[in-house]
Write a structure and sequence with these properties.
The protein has an eight-stranded mixed β-sheet, sandwiched between helices. The chain has helices at 87-101, 113-124, 142-149, 157-164, 176-184, 189-208, 222-237, 246-249, 272-281, 302-313, and strands at 9-16, 19-27, 32-36, 58-63, 106-109, 129-135, 259-264, 285-290. The chain is of the alpha/beta class. The protein is globular.
Length: 315
Amino acid sequence: MYPQVEPYAQGMLDVGDGQLVHWEASGNPDGKPACVFHGGPGSGANPHSREYFDPDHWNLILWDQRGCGKSTPPIADPSTSMELNTTQHLIDDAEKLRDHLGFDKWLLEGGSWGSTLILAYAIQHPDRVTEIVIPAVTTSRPEEHAWITRGLGLFFPDYFDAFRDGVPEEDRDGNLAAAYNRLLNSPDPAVREKAAWDWSKWDLSTITGGDNSFEGTRYADPTMRYQLSRAVSHYWGNEAFIEPNYIFDNLDRLKGIPGVLIHGRNDFGGPLYTAWEVAKRWPDAELVILNDAGHLVMEGNSMDKAIAAAIHKFR
């Protein structure tokens, strides 16, 4: 890992629709451009990402997707509309940011939801991407959303019953993400707070492999709980606003773009199958399977080290 240097520049980019997107640049202003697409949806940029990039070599951009982090208006405010917050909006925002910063091309890194967004961006703008590094591969197909909101009940039946029972009885056999999103947009603060709590308990258990204690996690913050649950249920409840197999059907557009896909064999929320199938359809990508890793990237674990090694490879 490299020193986590402070940004040398940052700003708020007006991307239209009344949206201001926060970005920061760190490292070498004359270095090779790279950009991190954060996960969630809704988590906001993580400064830890800077540690993967040699600050003497890379010109690194972190940005907060619409309504996340320092971007405004904040989706943590229930009065902020989500109508203009879709995958296509985020792809367009990223392209406006690249153009604003004056980069011809950049390396892209990001996992989980960031993976879906990177792949969708690269499919639309392959000439703007030098390389791609993705830990925890997802493509946001309906079956992936169904697995993480219902299928995982096979492994966590106790947590799933509580999660399912958090929505009205008439919604329990349908799209649970959409049902939770309706609760999270309720005019009643108590309904929103309980929905954010119930959703986050399930979300945390799926990404950790069963530990859903909020203590010491970002879920301990009620504002962050609401921001994440509102954003994730909005995207999953609407199947990420893309066609069911959009990414799988268009991976041929990534021909010639080198990539590294990194996936933990013990990833409950995102089974290895998705990464395996993406790698088969994208010949220029290398798949790294980590037998001791799950979904989370934690400081010093094998996923952390594999990301750093992949980025170093593309120096």
